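Q: Give me the 3D complex with flavin mononucleotide.
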Amino acid sequence: MVKDVIDFYYFSGTGNTLLVVKKMKDIFTENGVPVNLHKIENSKPEEVNLNHTIGLGFPIAELSTYNFVWKFIRALPETDQDTEIFMVDALAGFSGGIVGPVHEIVRKKGYNPIGVEEIVMPPNIFYIQDGKACNEKVQRGMMKAERYALDIVSGRSKWGRVPLISDVVYYISLAGLKVTKSNLNQKLLRLETNHEECRRCGICVKLCPVNNITLSEDKYPVHGFNCEYCLRCTSLCPRGAVSCPINYKGKTYRAVKAREFLE
Ligand SMILES: Cc1cc2nc3c(=O)[nH]c(=O)nc-3n(C[C@H](O)[C@H](O)[C@H](O)COP(=O)(O)O)c2cc1C
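A: Here is the predicted complex, encoded as structure tokens.
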């Protein structure tokens, strides 16, 4: 059973997690539980209100999640108030390195882990499905998000962990994330803005969760070397001007319009 208020901290690269989080918020609200949404990229973990129930929502990346999301989770304050916490992630198919490890991190900090759910949504990288297949997957995802939120409200949700396997996958994931951060990887898999397409609107600068995009003197975006590959800039650029070498056949996926990220 959740406390009076939920503070839901989330990150979404291309909109799938945002849809899940908004659906859950609607269900909580309908059931009389107010929800405050907080963007992880704009939030300070040390400022979370330990008297509220904490929600965490984010996409799976490299079998766990992005480095800056990990940073937020690891920096959550310790609590002696039995603060309830639940987690939801959006994924294309398989994670393995997140449910158990996050459970252990928050448990050791004194939280009461009340629920976890992984929700399959359309893939946004390596393989992009056609519109119909994406819509069907989103509909199934929304139904699962609804059931999960109801389970949280009624106290039926659970957050267990599979030891060993999840720890092994976690370390594989951390190694992958380290490679992603490396200069060599950042140079080889570099996102670029095509100046012929770019209208210099600067939306990519506002969308980047890790401030990795700046504007040059002539107002073209300059991509730095701290990209987390959340794909926001390439997926949401209104001109499709940002290319990413790991996009599937040059295609991009997005579940929502750019302005929903900027609200
Ligand atoms: C860099 C990157 C790595 C990913 N790694 C995984 C993964 O290991 N397992 C998986 O199931 N999905 C993976 N995905 C797919 C996303 O988790 C999935 O499409 C998710 O719904 C995206 O959520 P978002 O739109 O909120 O960013 C990855 C996506 C990206 C961009």
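A quick observation: Residues 12-17, 59-63, 90-95, 121, 123-125, 229, 231, 255 surround flavin mononucleotide (CB under 6 Å).
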